[in-house]
Design brief:
The structure is a single chain. This protein has 25 helices and 2 strands. With 561 residues, the protein is mostly helical. It folds into 3 domains: 120 residues, no CATH class; 188 residues, no CATH class; 211 residues, MetI-like fold (Orthogonal Bundle). It has a two-stranded antiparallel ribbon with strand order 1-2. Helix 10 packs antiparallel against helix 13, helix 21 crosses helix 23 and helix 24 packs antiparallel against helix 25. The protein starts with a helix and ends with a strand.
């Protein structure tokens, strides 16, 4: 009777956004522990048996979690940054894990599923206990034993590095400076904020053109920014004024929301070809933002001269007045002066910049090499093949050492590039060679009829390659291209080997920088691993979203049926 009543209720609300749930507890139970093998349990009493098993599992899990809660409260050390709330979180997580594990085990025993589905029962029970043991160990270590203060107290350091942090946060006469007696130099934080504003604008606009429900962007984005705000607003051992940072984060958030809204309304009210044109503009804006972030950090002389012609005075020329707190430089003064040299960049910023270089420059280099390898002219094909095979034949770490020790001799007659700039170029070349091979497979898969049609329409060979062959190749090879991007992002951790103060190296050396944290070397490394996983996961989700927008549902570019 009850199922019929529920079906009638659902039929009365057909226009609601939610749907009748399709979840079945019995089907889930069978998939985990196998089919019932106990002859005493049949369709009539199976529900009662399942309820009793669930109740017993919850009771046992409650007893276990309460005992763990009492033990955790006794073990917690307030000097390591712990609070009694950590014990509450531990108990809740323990309860969930224990309830599931006990339920799987008791169900298998009571229903004798191992008699009918031996492999399923053994696999389900063993997997549940492995998850339980591993998860409880990690939860206990992270909430009770670990000392996360080392990461929390140095969160601005691992984001920017020591030298870059000083120039971003310390400046007498600046509203960012907390105490003028503790500050020096010329505040350069506007350079990072300008790049962040542009990045947020491009991301917001890109999500706005996806055509999805606004809630799928707004809720996760606002949740993420809330977490960032909570981290930034905690004044524990920071060298910046939290109020100013919160103000700038609010501006960045607002700018992202405005960009998203405008792009969403435009995409909703215009034809597909106009939306695609906007997407191409946003892609170009993303590339421009990358180059802007590099140039604004350490502007070339032409930018300095332009700022000076507009009335700016190089800030370094009156640095004594700034240090004395007698004069505060304007933005034009800072632009007319020196920026932050690449050798002073550090932290997560370095990893993001170099990974982006591997993606942006790598894609451009990959396109050139892919078409060059396919060229019928030996002048183009032979050098392309030579570069691709040479670079792909050596590990990345060898090429990084090449960039450090040998590339300066090759570049110095033309450009005296610093270490990080050479790393940018090397990651771009290395990523480009792998992308070239991925694109080559996609170019070979382009139907010859499309090329003939393009020629019949009067398109030049270059137009055919860029407007017909390349888009089709990218459509087909998009998952592989994203995989290369994810690999380049993770490979940036190798920078510490060539003594670049990236996020990983700072995390590795952080416990040795303060006597309070000696021995706490695992915590920063775990945080580093989580950060890299989050970014890689985000790239993967973006790839899936792009595939759906392109109508691709299977790997290899299969079309939706």
């Amino acid at each position: 009777m009850t199922p019929k009543i529920l079906d009638m209720a659902w039929a009365l609300v057909p226009n609601l956004s939610f749907r009748k749930p399709q979840f079945s507890l019995s089907e889930f139970e069978e998939s985990v522990v196998g089919k019932n093998g106990n002859p005493l349990i049949n369709e009539r009493n199976e529900g009662i048996a399942s309820s009793l098993i669930a109740g017993l599992s919850i009771t046992m899990a409650l007893v276990f979690s309460l005992e763990a809660w009492r033990d955790a409260r006794m073990e917690l050390n307030p000097t390591m940054g712990h609070s009694t709330g950590d014990a509450d979180i531990l108990a809740i997580l323990y309860f969930i894990l224990a309830a599931f594990t006990y339920w799987v085990t008791i169900s298998s025993i009571v229903k004798l599923t191992w008699l009918k589905s031996t492999s399923t029962a053994l696999l389900g029970v063993s997997t549940a206990w492995i998850i339980f043991v591993v998860s409880t160990f990690l939860i206990h270590w992270s909430l009770v034993e670990a000392d996360w203060v080392v990461v929390w107290a140095n969160r601005d350091l691992v984001m920017m590095g020591q030298l870059m942090k000083e120039q971003m946060t310390q400046s007498p006469g600046s509203h960012v400076c907390i105490d003028e007696t503790d500050c020096y130099g010329i505040n350069q934080n506007f350079r990072l904020w300008w790049s962040l504003y542009l990045t947020f604008g491009v991301l917001g606009g890109a999500y706005g053109t996806s055509g999805e429900n606004p809630r799928r962007f707004l809720f996760p984005f606002l949740a993420l920014m809330s977490v960032v705000a909570l981290i930034a607003n905690n004044p524990t051992e920071v060298s910046y004024k939290t109020g100013t940072v919160m103000e700038k984060l609010a501006i960045a958030t607002l700018w992202a929301l405005v960009s998203y809204t405008l792009a969403y309304l435009y995409a909703k009210n215009n034809e597909e070809y106009k939306v695609n044109r906007l997407k191409s503009y946003l892609a170009m804006a993303a590339v421009a933002t990358f180059f802007f972030a590099i140039l604004i950090m350490d502007p070339p002389q032409i930018v300095k001269d332009g700022a000076e012609s507009l009335g700016g005075t190089p800030a370094q020329s009156f640095s004594d007045e700034i240090i004395a707190g007698e004069r505060s430089p304007s933005t034009l003064d800072k632009l007319a002066g020196n920026g932050i040299e690449a050798s002073q960049w550090g932290g997560l910023f370095v990893n993001l910049i170099i990974a982006t270089a591997g993606c942006v420059l790598g894609f451009g280099i990959g396109v050139v090499l892919a078409f060059g390898r396919q060229s019928d002219q030996l002048f183009f094909s032979v050098p392309s093949i030579a570069v691709i095979e040479l670079v792909r034949s050596g590990p990345l770490i060898c090429w990084l050492y090449f960039a450090v020790f040998m590339m300066p001799d090759m570049m110095d007659p033309f450009y005296d590039a610093e270490d990080i700039i050479r790393m940018l170029l090397m990651f771009g070349i290395f990523g480009g060679c792998y992308i070239a091979e991925v694109l080559r497979g996609g170019l070979q898969a382009v139907d010859s009829g499309q090329k003939e049609a393009a020629a019949a329409l009067g398109l030049s060979p270059l137009q055919t390659k860029l407007q017909v062959e390349l888009p089709n190749a990218v459509r087909t090879t998009l998952p592989s291209i994203i995989s290369v991007f994810i690999g380049l992002w993770k490979d940036t951790t190798l920078l510490f080997i060539v003594n670049i103060l990236d996020f990983f190296k700072l995390a590795k050396d952080l416990p040795n920088s303060d006597l309070r944290f000696l021995g706490d070397f695992l915590e920063p490394l775990y945080v580093t691993a989580v950060v890299f996983w989050v970014f890689a996961f985000y790239l993967s989700r973006v790839s899936m979203k792009v595939e759906r927008n392109l109508g691709l549902v299977r790997e290899g570019g299969g079309e939706a049926a």
